[in-house]
Amino acid sequence: MALKKYCLTVFMVLFIASLSNAQSIPLATGEWIPYSSKTLSNYGDFTARVTVVFNAMGLRPEYRFYPWGRCFDSVEKGRVWAAFPYSYTNERAEKVWFSDALSCSKTVFFHYAAGNDSKQYHYNTLEDLKPYRIGGVTGYYYVPLFKKAGLSIDYVNKEIYAMEKLKLGRIDLMPVNELVGRHLIKTHFPDCIDKFKILDKPLTVNPLRLIVSKDYPGSKELLVKFNAALKTCIEKGLITVETCDGNYRDIDD
C-alpha cells in the first residue's frame, strides 16, 4: 500500500510538472528600449503587449533575452516558439512565420550637426542617398532595401556603435527607430542632444510583429490562437495598435 501511494505521488508530481511545462512558452527578445529590455517595467512596452495576449490565451510566456542574431537563430531552429519585435521582409518570411501586428515602428535617418555644420540632407528615393556615408546594423529589415537601391552601407552589430560613428563624423546618416534613437542619444550623448537631427522623410513606418518558428512543436496552431487572442484583446481595448503602413503575410498552408 505504501509503495502504491508513493508511486501515485510520484505520478501526480510528474503530471503536474508536465502541465506546468506545457503552459510555459519560450520567447526570445533583446535590448531595444523602449520596446523590450530586461531593465524596464514589464520588460518594455512591446513585451507587455505580448504578456497581455498570453494571459488571454491562458498561457505563460517565458522571456529569454539574447543578442538579436541569436533571437532569429533560436526561432529558425525551433529552440523558442517566437521572437520579437520584428518587421516583415520577404527574406525572413522564407524562414519564419509572422504574427499579426502588435505595434508600429517609425524608422528615421539621424544625422549629426557638429560645430557650424549646416549640411542639409534631402531625398525622395533611396537612390538619392548614394553620395552619403550611411550606417546600419547587420541583419536588420532594411538590409535588402539598401542592397536593392545600390547603397554602400557601413554595417555594425549594434545601433549604439553606429550612433557613435555618426557623432564622430565617420558616417553621415544612420537609420534608427525614432524612439530607440532618441533613447540612445539621451543615454549616451546627453551633452549634445540638440546636435542630433532627423530627416523629415522617414525611411519606413512598419508594423512590428512576432517572428514565429516553423519547427517548434504545435507552432502553427499556437500562432492561430495567438492572433485570435490578440484580436480579442484589441476589441476589448486591452491593447491599442497604432495604424501604420507595411506588408502582411498569412501563415503558409
UniProtKB/TrEMBL annotation:
<keyword id="KW-0732">Signal</keyword>
<feature type="domain" description="Solute-binding protein family 3/N-terminal">
    <location>
        <begin position="31"/>
        <end position="247"/>
    </location>
</feature>
<dbReference type="InterPro" id="IPR001638">
    <property type="entry name" value="Solute-binding_3/MltF_N"/>
</dbReference>
<protein>
    <recommendedName>
        <fullName>Solute-binding protein family 3/N-terminal domain-containing protein</fullName>
    </recommendedName>
</protein>
<dbReference type="Pfam" id="PF00497">
    <property type="entry name" value="SBP_bac_3"/>
</dbReference>
<feature type="signal peptide">
    <location>
        <begin position="1"/>
        <end position="22"/>
    </location>
</feature>
